Amino acid sequence: MSTFQAPKGTYDLIPPRSAKFLAVREAISAPLKNSGYGYIETPGFENVELFARGVGESTDIVSKEMYAFETKGGTKLALRPEGTASVLRAALEANLHKAGNLPVKLWYSGSYYRYERPQAGRYRHFSQVGAEAIGAEDPALDAELIILADQAYRTLGLREFRILLNSLGDKECRPVYRDALQGFLRELDLDEDTRRRIEINPLRVLDDKRADVQKQLVGAPMLRDYLCDACKAYHEEVRELLTAAGVAFEDDEKLVRGLDYYTRTTFEFVHDGLGSQSAVGGGGRYDGLSEMIGGPELPSVGWALGVDRTVLALEAEGIELELPASTSVFAVPLGEEARRVLFGVVTELRREGIATDFAFGGRGLKGAMKSANRSGARYTIVAGERDLAEGVVQIKNMESGEQSAVALGRVVEELRSRLSS
Ligand code: AMP
């Protein structure tokens, strides 16, 4: 082991498990690519102010968990703790919203950083695939995103997840509710920190997991009773579209989520096999965010699904993904001459698109065959001096053990035909 280890709260993705991460990213992005979402990539860091204004000064993400730093040039930056603010910033900067083609639909995949207390399923560096639909207020768009996430999880084989759905109201009805809730909360017996939260972000108090707090919350005013008619109708439409699509969900009036920018639709995907960090993904509508970061009014909706927790969910359900074998053919040369010849064959096979590997390092037959076995290859090709003198290569079927000699000039063709059958 070297003197260095991965920093606290982080881990490395290492084969073979790393293949699952690639497969999860692919499974989540496939339905998006198929539904008009274009790929966007933004920097791993942004001006710290973008997150302060976009995600919200009062959130844990900004106030406690951000990796913020000042550059030598005096610019205040932060490693991105989430994707939405950056994607919206980039879309506005490139004037995508002015191309007359709303909504602008974008998807992304990348690393995110939060200085959280590490535990199972909660890391300081994690990976998300996300989608944003910018510049349209249409319940079908909210429904589309939820349906696509559901599709992604189902394609992966996940079954033990649930969709929680709520509406947070809009700038008309939410402030009225906020006042009512604050009035109720101020009368409770709560600690200093929570009292402060009542003043900055009272909805988050509803989310408090502590039993003694939850007990006092019985009888708290519920947002549902304060939603304006427009918000109610919008929410009802989202619910109906999901039901019509056969996507089951649970109404969860307490679903607030940890980011300030959400309005109307909010949702979370939770997995029941993950313990306390059960949210595998979440999102919602953020109609005010563009204006909060200095842009025009652009009602939008999006989600981010956590890749790390999706992999944990697969493992919790015991799902083995059908990953394509990384190696189909493994070449084992015996002697210098065979090395050169078989290396040529390997190059040719790879150019034909056949996944091939080679016994490097001049190891003996036994060691090389061990590597061939470990590689998972269906066929091994072996050649020694006598084979070369006869102009043949041995092809060994690794499953049956059966071996046959094939003319050197025909090896590629023979393997291609055997592998396609
Ligand atoms: P959020 O941006 O907080 O709504 O998170 C969206 C998804 O990202 C969550 O549902 C998780 O799957 C994942 N996620 C968020 N924070 C972490 C973390 N610290 N470690 C691992 N995954 C995370």
Quaternary: single chain
Mean of the pLDDT scores?
94
Broad structural category: alpha+beta
Beta-strand portion reads: 15-25%
Which small compounds were modeled alongside the protein?
adenosine monophosphate
Spatial gap, N to C terminus = 44 Å
Structural features, described:
The protein is of the alpha+beta class and 421 residues long. It has 2 domains: 17-173 and 227-316, Bira Bifunctional Protein, Domain 2 (BirA Bifunctional Protein, domain 2, 2-Layer Sandwich); 329-420, Anticodon-binding domain (Rossmann fold). It has helices at residues 18-33, 48-54, 60-63, 84-93, 139-155, 173-186, 192-200, 202-206, 211-216, 229-244, 289-292, 307-316, 336-351, 365-375, 385-390, 411-420, and strands at 38-39, 45-47, 68-70, 76-79, 104-113, 125-134, 161-167, 250-251, 263-271, 279-285, 300-306, 329-333, 356-358, 379-383, 392-397, 403-407. The strands form 3 sheets. An 8-stranded mixed beta sheet has the order 1-5-6-11-10-9-7-8, with helices on both faces. The site of adenosine monophosphate has 16 residues, from β6, β10, β11 and α12.
Condensed summary:
This protein has 421 residues and is of the alpha+beta class. It has helices at residues 18-33, 48-54, 60-63, 84-93, 139-155, 173-186, 192-200, 202-206, 211-216, 229-244, 289-292, 307-316, 336-351, 365-375, 385-390, 411-420, and strands spanning 38-39, 45-47, 68-70, 76-79, 104-113, 125-134, 161-167, 250-251, 263-271, 279-285, 300-306, 329-333, 356-358, 379-383, 392-397, 403-407. It has two domains: 17-173 and 227-316, Bira Bifunctional Protein, Domain 2 (BirA Bifunctional Protein, domain 2); 329-420, 3-Layer(aba) Sandwich (Rossmann fold), CATH 3.40.50.800.
